[in-house]
Specification:
Blueprint: H1 2-6, H2 8-37, H3 54-98, H4 108-117, E1 127-132, H5 141-160, E2 164-168, H6 182-192, E3 198-202, E4 206-208, E5 225-229, H7 231-236, E6 243-251, H8 254-264, H9 271-283, H10 294-304, H11 306-309, E7 313-316, H12 332-338, E8 351-353, H13 368-387, E9 392-394, E10 402-404
Helix pairs in contact: 2-3, 5-13, 6-8
Length: 427
Amino acid sequence: MRSLLASPKGKRFTKTVNNVKVTLLCGFITLLVLRGTMDLGDIQILETDYSVDFHQDFSAAFRDVNRVLSVLSHVDAEDDDEDEDRDDEELVSSNATYYSLGPKVADWDVQMRAWRSLHEPHQEPRILIVTGSSSTPCNNPVGDHLLLKSIKNKMDYARLHDLQLYYSMVELDNQLVGFWSKLPLLRKLMLTHPDIEFLWWIDSAAIFTDMAFEVPIGKYEGFNLILHGWEHEVYEKKAWVGLNTGSFILRNCQWSLDLLDAWATMGPKGKVRQDMGSILSEALDGRPPFEADDQSALIYLLITQREVWGNKVFLENAYYLHGYWASIVERYEDLMRFSNNGYGDDRWPFVTHFVGCEPCGNHADYSKQRCLREMERAFNFGDNQVLEIYGFTHESLSSSTVKRTERHSAHYPWLSNDNQMHPNLTS
C-alpha cells in the first residue's frame, strides 16, 4: 500500500483527497460566515460566561484556511514537479530500451532491388554527400561566413566529381540532437532515395583539400561502412579516437538500417545519454567523462558486437578520408611547392577536419582565433584548385583576394585540351 501511494499515481490520488478535504472545510467556514452576517431576528442566542466576537473568530479562521491553502498549493506544485521529473525519467528510460529511429524495416534490400529493376541502372554507383549545420545563426557573423565557405567547398567538390549533395538545417528527431542528428537524417535519406547506393556524411567543420582525389569506391566491394581509422586502435587498444565519424561512407542497404537502429539506442538526450557517457568513458581508452557521443558509441558497438558488425566495416587509412587539421595546416605552403593534388594522403591530404573547433559556438578545444585562421587557409587551399581551372589563384592562403595565373589542368584528367568542361576565361 505504501509503495502504491509513493508512486506518481498514488501521489496524485492523495493530492486529490486532500483537495476534497480543503474544499469541504472552506464550504463549512462559508456557511458559518453567512450565519454570522445574517439578520437573526427573533432568534435568541444563549448567554454564556463568555462573549463571542464572530467577526474576529471568522477572520482568524479565514487566515488559517488561507495559510493551509498556501501550504497545500506549494506542496502540490512540488509534487507536480517531482511527478513531471519522474515521468521524464521514465520516458528517457523507456527510450533507452525501446527507442528506435522509426518503424522497423526488414526487407529493404528486396524493396530496393524491385525499385531498381524498374529504372534504368547507372553505370557508376550513385553517391550522395550529406552535410548540414544548425537552423539558427551562429553566435558570431564570422562563424556563419565560414559555414558558407564550407558548403561552397563541398558544392565545388560534388560538381567536379558529378556527385549529389544534400544540406540539412533541421533536426528530424528531438531525442537525437547535436552530433547524433546525422543518424535519423541518414536513415530518412536512405529510405527516400533507393537510387542512391552510398551516402557520404561529412561534417561542416571538414574541408575538401584535394579537389582532384576520388574515393576508390570499387575497393569497398563487400563492405557497408567505410571510416578513417585503424583496426588495432579500435579492437586492441579500444581508443576512443581509433576511428572518426566526421567523414564516413555508408552503403544504402538493410545492414546499414540495422546498424543505425542499434547505434541510435545510445543517443537519446537526457539520462540515457549521460549514463551511456559514463559507460563509454570507462570502456574506451583516453575518453574524458562527458555524455555519449556518436563516435564513441560506434566504437563501443564494434568492440562489444564485433561478430555482428565488424566484417562489414572497412577502416581506411591509405588516404585521408578524415585528416586531423592540427597536423596538416602548417604544411600547405610546402605541399604547394613540392607536391601536387590527386594523392589524397599525406602528400596532399584529401580532407582536413577541424576537430575541436567550433566556429559557430563557444565551446571549442582550441582558441577561436587559431581555428578561424586555419579554417580560412584550408578553404583557400582547396579553392585554389578550383580557381586554377579558370586561371586564378589566391594571393596567399590567408587572403580572399585573387590574382591571374597560368592555367594548369594536368592533374584534372577530364580537363584536357580536346575536351574542356569549362570555357577559357582568360583574355
